[in-house]
Structure to design on (179 residues):
């Protein structure tokens, strides 16, 4: 099994982090790369519906873990005492992937791709939050005048996603090298 590579997708609220992650994931998958994703949420996930069997197992039955298996997919619900860091989660659940795209977890030393939208009226994180651990691999933006000390891809560029896919892999962190 190859050593999974980690790359983070960061940006301000409503900048398009999930949209970029999904596009990058699909582009990498088209290359034959086994992609896993990890997202940091600020609220409990609503992956199940009240009244469904698995919801009842977890909520009414107070099960520590609930695993549902169905044709073509498997979902695990697991209670935790505290949040884990992205490296622990990647090692425990996603180590069979070739690359793990991580949305959020911006305070961790994961190579970063930032999504920046000029229309949000805020400067990019790379220029305003020097305490965020890097390295910064790229910024994807609609701001034609943005200049930063890493690769910049414009949404208007031709083939920006294919180029970003290569830069992301080149700039990623091997899970075995993560803290």
């Amino acid at each position: 099994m190859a050593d999974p590579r980690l790359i983070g997708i960061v940006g301000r609220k409503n900048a398009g982090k999930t949209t970029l992650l999904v596009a990058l994931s699909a582009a990498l998958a088209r290359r034959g790369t086994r992609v896993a994703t990890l997202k940091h949420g600020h609220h409990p996930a609503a992956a199940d519906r009240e009244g469904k069997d698995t919801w009842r197992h977890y909520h009414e039955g107070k099960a520590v873990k609930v695993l549902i298996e169905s044709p073509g997919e498997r979902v695990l619900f697991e209670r935790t005492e505290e949040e884990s860091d992205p490296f622990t989660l990647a090692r425990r659940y996603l180590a069979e992937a070739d690359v793990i795209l991580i949305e959020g977890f911006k305070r961790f030393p994961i190579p970063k791709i930032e999504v920046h939208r000029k229309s949000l009226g805020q400067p990019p994180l790379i220029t305003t939050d020097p305490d965020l651990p890097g390295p910064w691999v790229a910024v994807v933006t609609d701001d034609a005048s943005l200049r930063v000390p890493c690769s910049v891809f414009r949404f208007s560029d031709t083939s920006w996603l294919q180029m970003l896919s290569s830069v992301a892999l080149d700039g990623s962190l091997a899970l075995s090298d993560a803290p």
